[in-house]
Amino acid sequence: MPGESRPLRADAERTVRAILEAAERLLARHPTATMEQIAEAAGVSRATVHRRFATREALLDAMAESAIRQLKDAVDAARVETAPPLVALHQATVNVLRVKMGRRFAFRHLSPANPRVARLQAELSEQSDAWFRRMRDAGMLAQHVDPVWARRVYYALVNEAFDDGEDDPDELATRIVRTLFNGVGGDEERRGERAVRPRRR
C-alpha cells in the first residue's frame, strides 16, 4: 500500500546517503578503499552496498551525480535569479566552495562519460550563463564582455581556490569576487599613466 511504501523509500534514501557520505570520507583518505571497507564505514553490510551499487564504477558515478546535484542546489539557495547580483554572486560562491570542500573526492573524479553528470553540468552552465547575463545587464560587467567567457573565468577562479588549501569559504569567496571584477593589477589610472609616460633617457 502507498502508506506502507513511503517509509521504505525513506529508509532506502537514508541508506544510499549514508553509503555516499561514508564513501566520500573514506576515499578522500584512502582512494583504493574496497567496497567492503566502504560498507563498514557506512555501518551497513557489503550486500547492502552491492544491492544499491552493483560495481565500484556505479558507486563513483552516483557520488559524482550527487555532488553535482548538491552544487546546483547550492547555487539555487543563493537566489541568483532574484537577489541583488553582487550579493548573490558572493553567497553562491560561498555555497559552492562549501560543497566542493565537502566533496573533494567526488569533484576530482568526475567522469565526462557519465551522461547524467554531463546533463547536470550543462544545466548548471546554462543557469550560470543567464546569471552572468543578468550581471552584465545590471552594469557589473562591461557591455562588450561575453557572459559565457566571464562564467568560464569565474569557474577557473573557483577551481583554483578549491585547490588552494584555504579552508575558509567566505574568505576565498571574497578573493574570487575581487579578482573577477578588479583583476590582479594595481590602480587602473596609475597603470595607464605608466603605459603612456615616455621613458627618461
Largest sheet: none
Q: Count all strands and give the number.
A: 0
How much is the radius of gyration in Å?
22 Å
- Give the CA-CA distance, first to last residue: 92 Å
Tell me the CATH superfamily of the largest domain.
Tetracycline Repressor, domain 2
What's the helix count? 10
Structural class by sheet pairing and helices: mainly alpha
CATH class of the largest domain: Mainly Alpha
- Could you say what the CATH architecture of the largest domain is? Orthogonal Bundle
Poorly predicted spans: 1-8, 190-199
Instruction: Return the string of H and E elements.
Output: HHHHHHHHHH
Query: Which percent range fits the helix content?
Result: over 70%
Query: How many independent structural domains?
Result: 2
What number is the mean pLDDT? 85
Shape: elongated
CATH topology of the largest domain: Tetracycline Repressor, domain 2
Strand percentage lies at: under 5%
